[in-house]
Hints:
InterPro entries: PEP-util_enz_mobile_dom (IPR008279), PEP_Utilizing_Enz (IPR051549), Phosphohistidine_dom_sf (IPR036637). This protein is α+β, with helices and mostly antiparallel strands and about 550 residues long. Mean pLDDT is about 90; it is low at about 5-10. The chain has helices at about 35-55, 80-95, 95-120, 130-155, 155-175, 180, 195-205, 210-215, 220-230, 235-245, 265-275, 290-295, 305-315, 320-350, 365-370, 380-390, 415-430, 505-515, 525, and strands at about 20, 60-65, 70-75, 400, 445, 445-450, 455-460, 475-480, 490-495, 515-520, 535, 540-545. The radius of gyration is 23 Å and the shape is globular. A hairpin with a 2-residue loop joins β2 and β3 (about 70-75). α3 (about 95-120) runs antiparallel to α4. Strands 5-12-11-7-8-9-10-6 form an 8-stranded mixed β-sheet. The protein has a 4-stranded antiparallel β-sheet with strand order 2-3-1-4.
Amino acid sequence: MNSPTPSAPTAFEAPGPGSWSVDAAHFPRPVSHFQAEIHPQGITSGFLECARRYGLLIDTLDFRFVNGFAYSSVVPAAEAEIPARFKAAEDVFRNKIWREDLARWDREVKPASIKTHQALLAVDPATLSDDELMTYVDRCRDNLQRMIHQHHSFNLAAILPVGDFMAHVGAWTGLPMGEFLALTRGSAPESAGSFPEMDRLAEEIRNSPDARKLLESGQASADILERLCNQPSSLGKATRDYLGVVGDRLLNSLDTGEPSAIEVPEALIARIRMAVQQHEHQDVAVTEAEVSRLREKIPSEHRAQFDELLDEVRLMSRLRDERGFYSDVWAGGVMRRALLAAGARLAAQGRIEAAAHLVEASYKEIQALLSRNGGPGAAELAERARYRKEQRAENAPSELGDPASPPPPMDGLPPEVIRVMTALGTAIQSLGAEPQDNRDTTVVKGIGASPGTYSGIARVIDSTEDLGRLEEGDVLITAATTDSFNIVLPLLGAIVTNAGGLLSHAAIVGREYGIPAVVGTRNATARIADGTPVTVDGTTGEVRFDAP
């Protein structure tokens, strides 16, 4: 990682040969030193695993951090591997191999991940000796490394079917894709912030007058959670079960440097209040009329294939977020819990200014600090934390290194390979967005990613800690959202992001919960003031507001 120093201007240099693109959709701000060190290997190895399985002509994404900002570069497959890739591609659509991956995820991978995370959370790090705590930090770090790899080993199972769907529908109709993608709505309950544990807790509170009174008492959110957890009844267990699922997941980041849900109790309490008020989940399932209306826009000779492709997208939709929820989003929260415990110990000794500053250290620096054998000083770690808080990806260069080259022509390749690569290219292009013309003083333009229109109050969220300010019906204005944000999604009336495209997280969860989403605006957070009344049109991709 090319790290900034407080005393020198920040320079951006390509981390290797080739062309490098910034990833503002997943990492809208610089990541902690700890995350920048651990993240790239898992992405690269996980992507390589699924690239070979799905017959891609690229090997992986080389992923690096420059001054804390994420950059990636495509690595082509070695010539010696091409025959094996051609053979693998023959099976992808013929056998729908993503179904095998989903079955393995449900049967083996997801249950094993939950078991591992819960076992680590069963340990109270505050009770450990210094040596035991370092061993525990090691265990959590090993788990996070595995989970980053695991997340990205399922990349193609999650995105290839939807990329294939988009490529075909685009070729058949040439129409905007947002409405077609909205036909997946209702296929991924957890992407809409729906958890069985949340349902049980809401029912327990409804049946307890004292709990309802406590929830509306105006007490501090952390105190309300603690009192609910300590109830010697099924209510207490339901609260602990819910927090056991969501509390130690990162709330809106893939970086251990950002808070877990339990650190923003205001957001959790707001979500619980809303669930208690909603005796039933909002019905967001796609209607037959919606399907029929859009199906009629498909040429008749392709409608049977359209139906088949849509079925596959719906089947695989939940894996898009689940592979993060149960992999590195949860493991990152477990890791943060361990580092906060270690940081609290160091802060009590006066060796760092705040417990959370320990994530600003590299792994070797953490080992040195915990063993009292050197390491960075408190002021240096505090400066690293300040840098991350102040910097944003929109201020970093979008490209580094050589100019990007167009993809090589696919003429003469086997049709199965062409289809795989076209689906992948369509999906990847839909994760980001081209710059929009945003010169109008009363309109911010982006990509209409989830159809519908909604008017409400803009809530500009710059950091995870700000999520506690969200109130039911607010319009979220933020740089980007990640998988873990789904915990508080039901509070929102609409979503607007600077980064992202049709397959970005904000677009997907907007469609899943049936609320308008506009993504890829580039500068909505700078253009729209907090508290401003706005109207979001998720079909046209426009956000209207009154000029100041």
